[in-house]
């Protein structure tokens, strides 16, 4: 193996798509090639995710040396930046940037905690990704080719979050994300066009009915609608208005984010905006695991709903097993909070028959190597993989390259709106152009 010496490591505080601070790192190799990467942040986070270090989280005995807790209402990341510019830099200077797995292992060992809470998963990940970028640049290769090699040619089908609810919106829709997937296209570019046309058709429909067309964190609309059935009615109208056939050209997906609805004391799911009374005056419905599964079954029977993410509480393994037994033969059941890009939790799901797909968020686990291991583990078990953004994004397009490098087949990066989202789509357009005839775009549900 050639030796590519790390000659500098530097981090800074920048802003993400929500105007909150995040960390950006640069790794320079051989004093010539610099790779840069920035880290996103989620609004709906699983309890088992790697720890994102914010200045408000700094321990009391470090406050005098840090002194940053009041900046940005405590959301600053200057302590994480400091950790990169001191400890991490000292650890990596002179190391071989081509040994990505070793670099990531060293970072995890340096942190010394199971959840990367000392240095911060955001500090570690920024350096991990920047290191890969620097190495790719030194070879004159695009990142997807450096990470995946010549076999990296599958373009991902986009999951476009075009209507928001839950913690992603200030409306009365309890489930978090409603998505469209253009599955009949022959190329990524065509799929992107189909999805974008449906998005604009939905905007026209909402505007014609004087409903809100302002967009949320991920570019989706956030009107007040009665329930998930009404949401899918609007998506169906939008697909047809754009000139396409629901279930043939475009299928639906959703992120229930059920952990956000789960009431631990009651062991049930609370839907604050729904009503059982005909008048709708009395708000609030409690649903058991069984009732929630029945709701999903009804939605799947009525609409071309092909993917459900986080359909149940993140620790309800028995419930996920039941859900998978009932719907897993025909529906993609994605674990996000359930698996948090962690191979240990993923293996538990594989062994227990809980879910049949995994959402990959690199900042959930904290290094490129661990995220790649999760994808390989899932693919070996026959699980599908979806590379995903976070609601608080940056202009960094690394997940686009990763989706192709790992032949994931699906990517979730928001609506075709807001530069932090379209940057990923535009990057994929360029990758498809580079791959030319070798690029593949396949319907992930074609075998059902």
What does this structure look like?
With 448 residues, this protein is of the alpha/beta class. It is 38% helix and 18% strand. The strands form four sheets. The protein has an eight-stranded mixed beta barrel with strand order 5-6-7-11-12-13-14-15, surrounded by six helices. Strands 1-2-3 form a three-stranded antiparallel β-sheet. Strands 8-9-10 form a three-stranded antiparallel β-sheet. The chain starts with 5 loop residues before the first strand and ends in a 7-residue tail after the last strand. The mean pLDDT is 94.
At a glance:
This protein is 38% helix and 18% strand. With 448 residues, the chain is α/β, with parallel strands linked by helices.
Largest sheet: 8 strands, mixed, barrel
Q: Write the H/E string, N to C.
A: EEEHHHHHEEEHHEEEEHEHEHEHHEHEHE
* Strands side by side in the biggest sheet: 5-6-7-11-12-13-14-15
Indicate the radius of gyration in whole angstroms: 22 Å
Number of E-state strands? 16
Percent in helix: 25-40%
Please give the count of helices: 14
Molecular shape: globular
SSE class? alpha/beta
Mean pLDDT: 94
Strand content: 15-25%
State the separation between the terminal residues, measured CA to CA. 44 Å
Instruction: Return residue spans where pLDDT drops below 50 for at least 5 consecutive residues.
Output: none
What is the fold's blueprint, element by element?
Blueprint: E1 6-15, E2 21-29, E3 33-38, H1 63-66, H2 78-92, H3 100-111, H4 121-139, H5 143-148, E4 154-155, E5 157-164, E6 177-182, H6 188-208, H7 228-241, E7 250-255, E8 262-263, E9 268-271, E10 285-287, H8 289-302, E11 305-309, H9 317-327, E12 332-335, H10 343-352, E13 357-360, H11 362-365, H12 368-380, E14 384-388, H13 398-405, E15 410-412, H14 419-435, E16 440-441
Parallel strand pairs: 4-16, 5-15, 7-11, 11-12, 12-13, 13-14, 14-15
Antiparallel strand pairs: 1-2, 2-3, 5-6, 6-7, 8-9, 9-10
């Amino acid at each position: 193996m050639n030796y590519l010496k790390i000659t500098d490591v530097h981090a800074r505080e920048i802003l993400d798509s929500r105007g909150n601070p995040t960390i950006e790192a640069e790794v320079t190799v051989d004093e010539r090639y610099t790779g840069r990467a920035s880290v996103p942040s989620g609004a709906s986070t699983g309890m088992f995710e790697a720890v994102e270090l914010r200045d408000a989280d700094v321990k009391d005995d470090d406050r005098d040396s840090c002194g940053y807790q009041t900046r940005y209402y405590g959301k600053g990341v200057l302590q994480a930046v400091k950790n990169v510019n001191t400890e991490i830099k000292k650890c990596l200077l002179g190391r071989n940037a081509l040994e990505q797995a070793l670099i990531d292992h060293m970072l995890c060992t340096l942190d010394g905690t199971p959840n990367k809470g000392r240095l911060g998963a955001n500090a570690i990940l920024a350096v991990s990704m920047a290191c890969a970028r620097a190495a790719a640049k030194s070879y004159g290769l695009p990142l997807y080719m450096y990470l995946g090699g010549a076999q990296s040619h599958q373009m991902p089908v986009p999951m476009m979050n075009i209507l928001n609810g839950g913690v992603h919106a200030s409306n009365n829709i309890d489930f978090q994300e409603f998505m469209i997937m253009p599955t009949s296209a022959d190329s990524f570019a065509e799929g992107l066009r189909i999805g974008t046309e449906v998005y604009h058709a939905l905007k026209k429909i909402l505007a014609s009915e004087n409903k809100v067309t302002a967009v949320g964190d991920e570019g989706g609309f956030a009107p007040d609608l009665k329930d998930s059935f009404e949401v899918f009615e609007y998506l169906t109208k939008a697909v047809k208005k754009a000139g396409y056939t629901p279930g043939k050209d475009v299928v639906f997906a959703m992120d229930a984010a059920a952990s956000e609805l789960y009431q631990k004391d009651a062991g049930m799911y609370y839907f604050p905006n729904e009503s059982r009374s005909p008048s709708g005056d009395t708000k609030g419905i409690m649903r058991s695991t069984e009732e929630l599964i029945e709701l999903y079954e009804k939605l799947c029977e009525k609409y071309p709903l092909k993917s459900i993410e986080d359909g149940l509480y993140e620790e309800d393994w028995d419930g996920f097993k039941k859900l998978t037994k009932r719907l897993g033969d025909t529906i993609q059941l994605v674990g996000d909070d359930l698996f948090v890009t962690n191979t240990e939790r993923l293996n538990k799901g594989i062994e227990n028959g809980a879910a049949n797909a995994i959402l990959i968020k690199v900042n959930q686990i904290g290094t490129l190597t661990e995220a790649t291991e999760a994808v390989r583990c899932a693919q070996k078990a026959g699980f599908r993989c979806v590379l995903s953004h976070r609601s608080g994004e940056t202009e960094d397009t690394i997940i686009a390259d990763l989706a192709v490098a790992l032949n994931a087949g699906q990517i979730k990066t928001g609506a075709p709106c807001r530069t932090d989202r379209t940057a990923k789509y535009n990057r994929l357009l360029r990758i498809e152009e580079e791959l030319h005839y070798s690029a593949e775009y396949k319907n992930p549900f074609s075998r059902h």
